[in-house]
Amino acid sequence: MKNILQIILISLFCLTFISCAKKDDSSTTTTELEGTWSAACYVDTDNFSNKNTITVSGTDVIVKYEVHSDSSCNTDLLTWEDTYSSLSIGDEISFDSGATGHQYTFNVVSFKLTLQTTDGVSALNAESSCGVSDWALDTATNYTGKTCGSTTYHAANTTYLGLYKLVGNNLFLGGFSSTGSYPTSVLNTITYVKQ
Q: What is the pLDDT of residues 92-114, one digit of tens each?
């Protein structure tokens, strides 16, 4: 009888311990995004061609937007470079197509612009764009947290909410939000391919 009571107590203890154990609710690791992703040259609504690259290393993200004055990404005009930290992958999302992706967050580190034409340098210096009057050719200028024209850019450490869809080696991104909720869709017209 004593043995049966011990077995019951041990079973109850194990059942209680297992059922009360904390489930692992931690975010998905960034492994599936690790590496470099590139979009093929495309022409935007402003008739400039663009080539975008995303590099993920651990929880650090660098997004480069190369803008070209021709239609085939050959004539350099300028490069935007956005740097983020603390990438955290959140809830999995299922899309109507059957593909899956995730919500994510990351924090602004910096926004930089490199001008690649003397005309661009002269124009931005003439208007002291972003409060900067010493724009220089092929030199990255940090405009994080500054007002440039009618646009005020977010300060460092601003948290962005995002959404991505992953189909094999193809990555599709939604917009970013710094307030409110996560995006609910991704842009399917720009495909980032794992390199």
A: 999 999 999 999 999 999 999 99
- What is the Cα–Cα distance from 140 to 5, expressed in whole angstroms? 74
3-class DSSP string for 45-95:
CCCCEEEEEEEEECCEEEEEEEEECCCCCCCEEEEEEEEEEEEEEEEEEEC
Q: Provide the residue ranges of all domains of the chain, joining segments of one domain with +.
A: 30-194
- Return all residues near 193 (Cβ < 8 A) that are at least 6 apart: 37, 38, 39, 40, 169, 170, 171
Do residues 144 and 108 make contact, with C-beta atoms less than 8 angstroms apart?
yes
Closest CA to 113 of 155, 141, 138: 141
Q: Which phi-psi region, left, alpha or beta, contains residue 41 (left: φ > 0; alpha: ψ -120 to 50)? A: beta
Does the global pTM surpass 0.70? yes
Residues 6+ apart with CB under 8 A from 140: 81, 112, 113, 114
DSSP category for residue 31: G
When computed from its CA atoms, the radius of gyration of the chain, rounded to whole angstroms, is 24
Q: Report the C-alpha gap between 120 and 80 in whole angstroms.
A: 14
